[in-house]
Structure formats: C-alpha cells, structure tokens
Amino acid sequence: MPQRGRPRGFDREEALRRAMEVFWTRGYDNASLADLTRAMGINAPSLYATFGSKEALFHEAVALYVQTEGSGIWEQVETAPTAHAAIAHVLHATAEAFTRGDTPRGCMIVLAAPQMQGANAQVCDALKAHRKENGCLLERRLRRAVEEGELPASTDCRALASYFVTVQHGMSIQARDGASRETLLRIADCAMASWEALTS
Amino acid sequence: MPQRGRPRGFDREEALRRAMEVFWTRGYDNASLADLTRAMGINAPSLYATFGSKEALFHEAVALYVQTEGSGIWEQVETAPTAHAAIAHVLHATAEAFTRGDTPRGCMIVLAAPQMQGANAQVCDALKAHRKENGCLLERRLRRAVEEGELPASTDCRALASYFVTVQHGMSIQARDGASRETLLRIADCAMASWEALTS
DNA sequence: TTGTTTGTGTATCGATCACTACATAAATTG
DNA sequence: CAATTTATGTAGTGATCGATACACAAACAA
C-alpha cells in the first residue's frame, strides 16, 4: 500500500538540506523555527509532521552533514595507503571543505553547539560523540600503521590522534574568522611538519 | 563628592566575575538574564542600572576575562627569551588554564559566540577581534625572532602564527569535550614538535 | 459518492526572552 | 527636619521562543 492520504507538498530531502545549512550557519540554539521554516519553504506544522521536533530535525541534519559534507574529509582514512597520507588528506580536505564558498565556513559538528550547557544536553552530547568518533578513527588508523610497520611501536597513537583532531577543530574557528583556503592549507602543512619528529 | 544617593548593595566586581563565569560556561546567547541575575545575586534593574545592558555586561566580562584568565596565557609572549619559549609557554599555559577545575573548561573568547550569525553581530565581532589579536601577537613575536637571528629570514611567520593559534583554539574544543590536562599537554608538545622542521 | 487518511495554512498556545515603569528604601545635602 | 539622589524589589512590557489545535485540502478505498 503506497501513500494513503494527501501527498507531501515539498521535497523532504531538499527541506532537510536547507535545515542543515541553517543549523550549520547559526548553530542549534540560534536557529529559530522561523529561520528554519523560512529556509525550508514550509510552515511549522509541516515541519513537525515530517520531522517530529526541532531536535529531531537537527539530528537528521547532523546525519546528513556527516554523510555528505563530512565524508569528503574522513572517508579516505581507512583506505589511504599510509597513516601519513590519511591524515594529510584529512587536513587538506578540511581546508578545501571549510572554504568551499557555497556552504557555511567551518564544521557543523564543531560549531553548532559548543557550549555543552545550553538548553539541550542531548544535542551537545550527540555532537561531542561525533567529534570523539573522529579522534578514535584517527587513533585506529595510527595503530594499524604501527601494526603494519609504517610507524615504530613507540608511537603514542592516542596523543597523535588528539593532536591532529585538535588542529582540525581549530581550523573551524579559523575558517569562521575568515581564513582563506591558502591559509588553512598552510596550517595543515605546519601541522604535518611535526610528523617526522613525532614518529621516530 | 563621594557617593550621593543610596549605596549599591552588592560588590560590582564580584557580580561581574559571576557574570563572566555564566557567559564563559553558557555562551552569550544561551546565558539568559535569569541565569545572570541568579548567579550575580541581584535583580534585573540592578543589573541594568550598573552595567547598562546584557551586551555591555558581556563586553565588560570579556575585558575581565582577558585581564584575569587570558593574561596567564599570553602575557609572557613579549618577555620570553625566545619565540620558541614564548609559544611553548602559551600552549602549556593553555593546557593548564583550560583544566583548572574551578573555572569553566576552554576559552571564553573561542566558545562564547562561535556562530557569527547570531542575533548580536557586535558580540561576535568583538570576540573575533580578540582572536585575531592573539594571532597578530604571535606573528609579531616571530618576526622579532627573525630580526634577532633566532629564526631564519625564510620563516613564514604568518603561517606559523596561524598554525599555533589554530592549535590553541582547537584545545578549547578538546577541553570542553573533557580532555585531561595531560592530554592537552601532550597536544601542546605534538604541536611544538614541528618547530625544527618549520624553522630551518 | 462517501469515508478515511494524511498534509497544509491560519491562528494561536504557554513559556521565556531582554528589558523597564514605578513605588519604595537608603544614603547625602540643605 | 525636608529635599535630593541613587539603588532595589515587584511586577510587569511587547517580542519571540518551540510547539499545536483546528479546520480545510487532497489523495486513496469502498
């Protein structure tokens, strides 16, 4: 039995994409329902009937962000031939993604709710979990590089992973403050310059 | 002529300090007047009579933050014997300041209004200006190090400054996410590990 | 056609937002 | 003692917050 009642008058995915951009630009709390419905081209009852609540919409927007925007940054970590290439790609792809021009600057996961004490703890926790996952991803890749002989057994994989995600997070602030793609790429290169010293 | 009418019933500096902690923890927009007046132990009319507005109170809180909390991080940049020592101290002092225990984690300047599209543009711009000033401070110190012969003339002082402030900003996110002092110190050491490669 | 189901638009809801009018309290000045 | 000045507490202001009640529109099933 396909759809029963009146069909939806708008594209759910397109509306979600618009909502993602609003959350990305303004953050969770500062994105009002008026902002969201205006950007999505629908009225509040349609939003609630389709997505449930502002928070549920946000979680869907985060999932879409991770799937579309985040993938270009993180997807090659596992498949890159070396840990060095994997992390260099993460930082360079970050510089590119944060200055694309047609999307908000910086990372939604980092910038959308950094306060942790806002009205909605679940929103903060979800973003925090995503940030942590990125660090774990890098740490796993570094551990694999140790197993495969790319890096010495003495490598402090956790410290390196923390360091590189810290740079990646800091690049969000720089991007929001207007840093150019060239500046972000130079920051990435500076960060990678510690590779030799940290893996020997 | 010392004070004329009824004397103020609370300590202005103490109240400002309390307000600073609220803004530091919750950010500008998420800090409601109810939060502020509760923490400050006063009613709204006293707040407005003394500080003018929420925004004016915030600007005073930022100034107090820079003066008290930020000084321990940035004050030795000019006086440190070398640029290397100056920046190493910035990062180590950052790790210490962000995990003090009796103050909120991370930097108020970075975390209090990262969205730039919130209701109040002047608040965002003021914080952005403070962030930029930190980068310029580092860049000036690096240029001086080139003049004094500590660093070669080929050093890209602007790139290095951008890189180290990026790490310093990223540490705010890590601190908010619960990173320990040891973790932040290790991140600082990783960041400094690129010094040799970047200055030769 | 009639009944059922689902989506949409209008017009709100109570709660909270930053902010303030107003009367009173507490000090100095004459 | 007034008279003046400043601060405080109560009780609100209009605006906006996230979220909905409700009537109607548009599809299908019978």
From TrEMBL, chains A, B:
<dbReference type="Pfam" id="PF00440">
    <property type="entry name" value="TetR_N"/>
</dbReference>
<dbReference type="InterPro" id="IPR011075">
    <property type="entry name" value="TetR_C"/>
</dbReference>
<dbReference type="InterPro" id="IPR009057">
    <property type="entry name" value="Homeodomain-like_sf"/>
</dbReference>
<feature type="domain" description="HTH tetR-type">
    <location>
        <begin position="9"/>
        <end position="69"/>
    </location>
</feature>
<keyword id="KW-0805">Transcription regulation</keyword>
<protein>
    <submittedName>
        <fullName>TetR/AcrR family transcriptional regulator</fullName>
    </submittedName>
</protein>
<dbReference type="InterPro" id="IPR036271">
    <property type="entry name" value="Tet_transcr_reg_TetR-rel_C_sf"/>
</dbReference>
<feature type="DNA-binding region" description="H-T-H motif">
    <location>
        <begin position="32"/>
        <end position="51"/>
    </location>
</feature>
<dbReference type="Pfam" id="PF16925">
    <property type="entry name" value="TetR_C_13"/>
</dbReference>
<dbReference type="InterPro" id="IPR001647">
    <property type="entry name" value="HTH_TetR"/>
</dbReference>
<keyword id="KW-0804">Transcription</keyword>
<keyword id="KW-0238">DNA-binding</keyword>
